[in-house]
Amino acid sequence: MAEVSSADVRELPTDQGVLRYHEAGDPAARPLLMLHGSGPGVTGWRNFGENLPTFAPHFRCLVLELPGFGVSDPTDQHPMAAALPAVGRFLDGLGLEQVDVVGNSMGGLVGTRFAVAEPERVRRLVTVGGIGRNIFSPAPGEGLNLLMEFTESPSRERLVAWLHSMVFDRSIVTEQMVEERWAQATEPSTLEAARRMYSRAALEGMTRAAERSPEPPYWAMLHRVRARTLLTWGRDDRVSPLDMALVPMRTIPDAELHVLPNCGHWAMIEQQAAWEAVVLAFLARAD
């Protein structure tokens, strides 16, 4: 494939701001939408840039930068609330009726909610941790507590502590990674959006709102997913512990679970080759 870099950002103007994305692969191939997670300094490129050489020969890869994380235009909404309609605007803007979706953590949750809301538009769904609910482990987990501490009072030390909670092998957290993420995470509009998501007050407010809402929680709607689904999980995930997989594994009608050992929350990075092999085989499997 032609080499793609983090600087190769495309733009899609919409009625709610510009959505930015990376594209790799044959424009005529099956589209594969890749949705990043959340957290300090996250981008779609940092989540999936290293995976593109494996998937681009087979798919039209579209790495969407969700609003509120410092690459696409900012949003006044809660970033999670902005993400779901952004996916629909993005697919409509590119004229795509149906896609395969790969989502890491929050991106997996967004992709799953999109598959519930518009089931005909998602053929295959792959998640990397992040969906379901805690059954045996405490909630919020260690990684989310460290994320809240950083969001409320940012420091390099708290950023490093959070990054270490994301991985099994701490050597993955390099000084370059820390500096890149620090620069983006502390940009004022990005930090303000993060506080709408991950301050302790924000999470407590979301809990109270969910208790008052007449709508069931998203995890109670997983039986509505019609896409064939692959749940991938790091066995040693300290952000969304493995017991969270039990509800989606049991309630999504056509779901399978693959657990990667010696692996934290970033399976697509920490166990890159093994994760890519499993996901590529799943996406290429005949309907």
Q: Can you characterise this structure?
A:
This protein has helices at 44-48, 52-55, 79-94, 106-117, 142-152, 156-165, 175-185, 188-198, 200-212, 246-251, 267-270, 272-284, and strands at residues 10-14, 17-24, 31-35, 60-65, 99-104, 122-128, 228-234, 255-260. It has a domain at 10-138 and 216-284: 3-Layer(aba) Sandwich (Rossmann fold), CATH 3.40.50.1820. The model has no long low-confidence stretch (mean pLDDT 93). The protein has 287 residues and is α/β, with parallel strands linked by helices. 40% of the residues lie in helices and 17% in strands. Strands 1-2-4-3-5-6-7-8 form an eight-stranded mixed β-sheet, with helices on both faces.
Order of helices and strands: EEEHHEHEHEHHHHHEHEHH
Structural class by helix and strand composition = alpha/beta
- Gross morphology: globular
On the 0-100 scale, what is the average pLDDT?
93
Overall number of strands:
8
Protein name: Alpha/beta fold hydrolase
Keywords: Hydrolase
Organism: Nocardioides deserti
GO molecular function: hydrolase activity
